[in-house]
Fold this protein.
Amino acid sequence: MINALIQEEIQEIERQEGFQEGFKVDNIDGANWCFRKIRALKEQMNETNRIAYEEVNRIETWRKKENENAESTITYFEGLLTEYYRLLKSENPKAKVSTPYGKISSRKSKKWNWQNVDETLSYLKENGFNEFIRVKEEIDKVTLKKTFKNGVNTETGELIPGIEVVEKESITIKVE
């Protein structure tokens, strides 16, 4: 809180609104008067900043609490929607949910789990698939995935050793 002397300095400035137009410092007392006013105004600014900082912190704490509650409720509703969508998909694999307020969709993707890269590398070398091997003897996984769909050598029907392809479904909820 601003002390009484500083408060008095600020009130004096407020009482003399027009002092800025014709005021001049022409002696040490005038300079001292200006210093006191500057000091008082800086103290006022510090106090204003302190109060604002406390209020901002209080509001930020409130905002976080409110948003935590909302986030947990959103997670709950998304769980309900996911459960509903999975039920629909079990009845009809092409089921879609679309309302004016949002959509639920799913997308299947295949994830390659590289269980034994050395084994896969050996297989590629032995069978002449050098274009899938980088110079630093690392599997070119992007090109390999494009060529061997689902981890199968289509020419021989062999599964590529050291790879397991797992189908994964991701569900997306968009609120519009």
Summary: The radius of gyration is 36 Å. The chain has five helices and three strands.
